[in-house]
Each structure stands twice: as C-alpha cells, then as structure tokens.
C-alpha cells in the first residue's frame, strides 16, 4: 500500500485526494521545509537502520520522500545545504554512539565480574577413609613392585603395576567432587562482546551464527553510523587544514605585497632625493655661473674705463658734483621769498 501510495503521489501529486476547498489552503511541501528529513536527503536516516531490532528508534517524525530527495539533488542550493544537513546528522549519530559506548562499557564490566568457579567442596568422612585405604594399598604394592624388580621377577612386577593403575583410577574418582552445579559451570560456554553494536556473542561460536550476526540490521546499522562519523571528522579536519593553509598563503601573499610596496616606496623616495639633490646642485651651479658672469662683466667694464684714460670716471664725478650744486641752488631760491620781495619793493 505504501508503494502504491508513493507511486500515485509521484504521478498525481500529494494533493490528489483534496477537495477544492481544501486545495485553497494547501501548501505543497518542498525539500527545504522543516517537516522534511534532512538526514534522509543528504545520507541516511538512523530511524531506518534499526527497525525491529533491540535498538529500534521508532518511525522518523519527519518526511521521507524520494521525489523531494531528487528535487534536492537537482537544486542549485544543494551544495550550500549539504554541510548543514551533514553536521546535524553527525551530531545525531554521535549521540547514538555515545549511548552505545556506555552500553558496551557496562557489558565489559559484566563479563569481567563473572563469578569464578567455586572451589570443590570438602570430602565426606566416608570418602576420606576410603581414600586413605586406597593410598595405603598403592604404597604397599609399589614396595612389592620394587622388591620383585630387584629379584628379577619382571612378570610378577608388571602384574602388580596393573593393580596400582587400577587403584590410582579409584583414587582419582574418590578425589573428584560430584556436585552437579560445579559440573555445569565447567561446561558453560564463555561469552564475548561485539565492539561495533554492543551485542553479546558466544565465543568461538559456529561460523554460520557469527556471519548471521555480522550481516544483521543492528550490526550493519551501527557500522554505518560509526563509518559516517569517522568520514565526517576526517573531511572536516581536512577542510580545516586546507582553510588554515589558505589563510597562511594569503598572509604570506600580503606580506610579500607589503614588502614590494615598501621597496617601491623606498626606491621612489631615493629617486626623489636624487632628483632634489641634482636640482639643488644645478641651482648652485647656476648661481656660481651667474656670479662668475657678473664678475667677468665688472672686470671688462673696469678694463674699458682704464683704456679711456679715466675720462669716463672723471666725467661722472664732475657731472655728479655740478648736478648737486644746481640742485642746491634751486632749493635755496625756493626757500627765500622775503628776499625777492624786498628787492621788488626797493
């Protein structure tokens, strides 16, 4: 019925039996809804592993739908959701394994605390007396065997030795306890514990029974759970190592980039200093060149004056004195108005 229902859901949809009124409020379930089992989507659901076994977890409370799983595998968001679902599954499986390991430890303690066989009970007085008589007979016969052997009577000595062996068997029978419980403990089979699923097994059992256990649901289910945890931890550790290497590589690239930038800046500063140094040197050279040119012109001017016989210099000096005298006369006239008016009045 479940297979037929799933086939109809795939062909006609899960809402095939709803009325028109019910269809109005119906929302189609998608793979990313909370009602859908993410464990089933990404790997396996532990609720499906132990059905009808001692470790049965019951039915999964969330939806298991192959059509939704197929939709999830084709979704562009598949790779983004896989780590999330796997982390949740790993957490659930680790809790299962922790509970199982506690059960395994308790099983080991039970096996270690098995009661050792009790010591045989003491012999009764009657059996002790019979045992003493038998031991005395054996002693006497052994002395006779030794005497006959020294006398060379080999046949008689061998006949007595056969009687000694019979008495030794009787002695052993008298010494062994006849307690039925002790005999049963001696014949009891030794138990062993499966480290994978925590089941008790008979040690050195038949190969058929051992194979039946190994292929059973409980053993296979816990094997899948343990393998997934090991695989998940290894993948996570590998991812962490790769991320660490990527961070270290990125840090190394940034360090090299900083060194390159520092070297470029150092070269730029050195080039600027060299350029300023050349500019200062050129400016100083131009200043010295101008100064030399000025000195050269002054020297040439003095040479021309010397060739003119000093006339140029005397002319400037005379012109300077006459000019000063004329300027003084003009100032004197402008400052004596009274004198001029007196002359006009007279």
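^ Assign residues to that structure.
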């Amino acid at each position: 019925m479940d297979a037929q229902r799933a086939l109809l859901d795939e062909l006609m949809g899960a809402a095939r039996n709803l009325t028109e009124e019910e269809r109005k409020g119906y929302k189609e379930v998608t793979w990313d809804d909370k009602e859908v089992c993410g464990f089933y989507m990404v790997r396996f659901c532990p609720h499906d592993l132990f059905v009808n076994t001692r470790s049965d977890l019951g039915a999964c409370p969330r939806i298991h739908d192959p059509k939704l799983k197929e939709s999830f595998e084709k979704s562009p968001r598949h790779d983004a959701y896989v780590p999330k679902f796997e982390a949740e599954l790993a957490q659930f499986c680790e809790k299962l394994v922790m509970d199982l390991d506690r059960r395994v430890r308790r099983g080991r303690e039970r096996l270690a605390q098995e009661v050792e066989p009790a010591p045989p009970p003491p012999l009764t007085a009657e059996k002790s007396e019979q045992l003493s008589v038998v031991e005395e007979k054996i002693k006497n016969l052994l002395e006779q065997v030794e005497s006959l052997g020294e006398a060379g009577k080999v046949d008689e000595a061998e006949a007595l030795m056969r009687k000694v062996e019979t008495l030794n068997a009787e002695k052993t029978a008298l010494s062994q306890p006849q307690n039925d419980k002790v005999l049963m403990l001696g014949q009891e089979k030794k138990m062993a514990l499966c480290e994978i699923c925590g089941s008790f097994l008979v040690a050195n059992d038949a190969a058929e029974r051992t194979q039946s256990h190994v292929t059973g649901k409980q053993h296979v289910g816990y094997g899948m759970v343990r393998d997934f945890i090991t695989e998940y931890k290894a993948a996570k550790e590998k991812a962490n190592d790769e991320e660490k290497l990527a961070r270290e590589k990125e840090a190394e690239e940034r360090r090299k980039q900083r060194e390159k930038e520092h070297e470029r800046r150092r070269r730029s500063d050195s080039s600027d200093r060299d350029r300023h140094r050349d500019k200062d040197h050129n400016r100083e050279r131009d200043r010295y060149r101008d100064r030399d040119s000025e000195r050269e012109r002054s020297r040439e001017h003095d040479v021309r004056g010397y060739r003119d016989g000093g006339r140029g210099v005397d002319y400037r000096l005379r012109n300077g004195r006459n000019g000063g005298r004329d300027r003084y006369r003009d100032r004197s006239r402008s400052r004596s108005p009274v004198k001029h008016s007196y002359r006009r009045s007279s």
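Residues 179-187, 310-318, 334-346 have pLDDT under 50 and may be disordered.
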